[in-house]
Amino acid sequence: MTVNNLAQASQDVHSYSKPKEAVAKHLDLDITVDFEKKILSGTATYQIKNLTKTNQIIFDTRGLKIEKVLLDEDTKETTFKLGNDDKVLGQPMFVDIKPETKTVTIHYSTTPEAAALQWLSPQQTAGKKHPFLFTQSQAILARTWIPIQDSPGIRITYSASVKVPKELMAVMSAENPKEKNETGEYKFLMQKAIPSYLMALSVGDLVFRPIGEQTGIYAEPATIEAAAYEFAEMDKMLVAAEKLYGKYRWNRYDLLVLPPSFPFGGMENPRLTFVTPTVLAKDRSLTSLIAHELAHSWSGNLVTNATWEDFWLNEGFTVYFERRIMEELYGKDYADMLEVLGYQDLQHTLDDLGRNSEDTRLKLELDGRDPDEGLTDIAYEKGNAYLVHIERAVGRDKFDAFLNKYFQTFAFGTTTTDRFLDFLNSELIKGDEKLAEQINADAWIYSAGLPEEHYTPASSLFAKVEETSQAWQQGTPAAQLNTKDWSSHEWLHFIRLLPEQMSQQKMADLDKAFNFTNSGNSEILAAWFLHAIRNNYITADQAMEIFLTSVGRRKFLVPIYKALIATPEGKKKALAIYAKARPNYHAVSTVTLDEMLK
Ligand code: BES
Ligand code: ZN
């Protein structure tokens, strides 16, 4: 790749900063968390490198109140300017510096509307006694709680001091406390350089429970038991992951279980994955999500997409890695089920976006758009399908060696589609034209749709589910079906296979036999509600309303609301529920739903 090419490739259309001129290297964050006013306030002090002896450094901000900026040891303020406010990108903050400036201290506060922050009332927590706060910085929301060079191509180390009410504890994507202290002041250190979207903070009534030597769980006291049971195997996952792709580079790996309004399934904040409580199914059936977030400790956190247009390098690699961990732990039959469900998601997304849509290419074009628009199953499942395709072309051993080397070579650095392809050429293809043709990078990465040569996964366990499904559709009563020992994945497959149109009697027959409406498994519930809505099965209405008003996970909310608004009566129902539920959702979810329901 030419230098010019590289410069272009790492140009981030979602950040105002100019890291090739002046770049932040280390952050000392000193903030106070005010639950009453719903603001954070304090200082962000940066050690900077002025590469071109410029007299300006640029940070990203969105909705921040900047009080003043100081340089080095000066007590006199320097001048700064906030540029035009863009709805998605926020405002650039131009700070006047000197060619020899080493540190920049920004005094600032957030506003209650900061999109990354969700402030929960005691009522919205498991314990109901204390308020709770968490951040969600990916993709470009770090700038709503810290003035920062907010591009995944820029890495910083950080330390932080966070003051919180005495009854609460603070945790971050860093070295964490294991218990509360008397002062309510917590210190953090992250000595490995990370991109801004991995800056994370949470504050609440938290306790810690170790799982292994290196692993453990933070949760509210009311949730810790259930979480410790559900995630008891996290240590084994770490062992499997290291065996596959090399040493874990972040020391500890802990989980933080959040209240149900958390908008995602999981977020791979370094050393401390944030996870939704909707995976607490009591049977460990949804823990592939932990394998996924853990895998990000390599794909994403260690080797990071340079811009959001290369999001597939984070997520596609992670899905591939996640399924390899699951295969290692639970065997091929188990992993095959996950692979098939993922393939179904991919087909669904391709139909949804249209197979000619440019958004079905792995390499995205997001200039002028919210990077959130790139957050589809394409990056995840087409990305994974491509890696499976390459694995099959070269053989698993060679591919594993390649991935190992890839993670080592680019560790604590960034990657782009071009960099990946260069590495593929030099390490695997090595001039073999036939292999290059087979790997077919152009078609996979730069073309829409799914290349025909893709591998179509199959699952022997699902084949049995399909037989059972047939039997039911041909009239065998639900209670007589052989569903013994089915995992939640088999149930999910069964529910997805149900016909679009079903009579009340058919719905009731299923529900009576399998109690879907009252399932404790969030994946099963979310899939079942779609049938309930389509078939006007009002028996499920109450459970659905409870689900929608307590759970904030966007992946579940969007399809359910979408199904509801397909009919006028459904739309009425949706709007009534949304009015009640909205205060419980994170901005990440309301941005999407406001648009859908307006
Ligand atoms: N990093 C993502 C979540 C994310 C992506 C947040 C883009 C904001 C912008 C995380 O690793 C993820 O993929 N979570 C999935 C779960 C996973 C098992 C597919 C989720 O939240 O559903
Ligand atoms: Zn992910």
Brief rundown of the structure:
By secondary structure, the protein is an alpha+beta fold.
Structure description:
The chain is α+β, with helices and mostly antiparallel strands. Helix content is 39%, strand content 20%. The protein is built from 19 helices and 21 strands. It has helices at 3-9, 221-230, 234-245, 288-295, 311-330, 332-353, 377-394, 396-409, 417-429, 433-439, 441-446, 460-473, 488-497, 504-514, 522-534, 541-550, 554-564, 568-581, 587-597, and strands at residues 22-34, 39-50, 56-61, 65-71, 77-78, 80-82, 91-96, 103-109, 117-120, 132-135, 155-163, 169-172, 185-195, 201-204, 207-210, 215-219, 253-257, 266-267, 272-275, 303-305, 413-415. Strands 5-4-8-2-1-11-13 form a seven-stranded mixed β-sheet, with no helix packed on it. β1 and β2 form a beta hairpin. The model is unreliable at 1-9 (pLDDT under 50). The structure holds ligand BES and zinc ion (ZN). Ligand BES is lined by residues 138-139, 264-268, 289, 292-293, 296, 315, 375, 380, 555.
Protein traits:
598 residues; alpha+beta; 7-stranded mixed β-sheet; 5-stranded mixed β-sheet; 21 strands; globular; binds zinc ion
Question: How far apart, in Å, are the first and last alpha carbons?
Answer: 46 Å
The share of residues in helices is 25-40%
Count of helical segments?
A: 19
Rg, alpha carbons? 24 Å
Largest sheet: 7 strands, mixed
Secondary-structure content class = alpha+beta
Strand content: 15-25%
Strand order of the largest sheet: 5-4-8-2-1-11-13
Count of DSSP strands: 21
Query: What small ligands are held by the chains?
Result: ligand BES, zinc ion
- Which shape, going by the Cα principal axes? globular
Unreliable spans: 1-9
Tell me, rounded to a whole number, the average pLDDT. 97
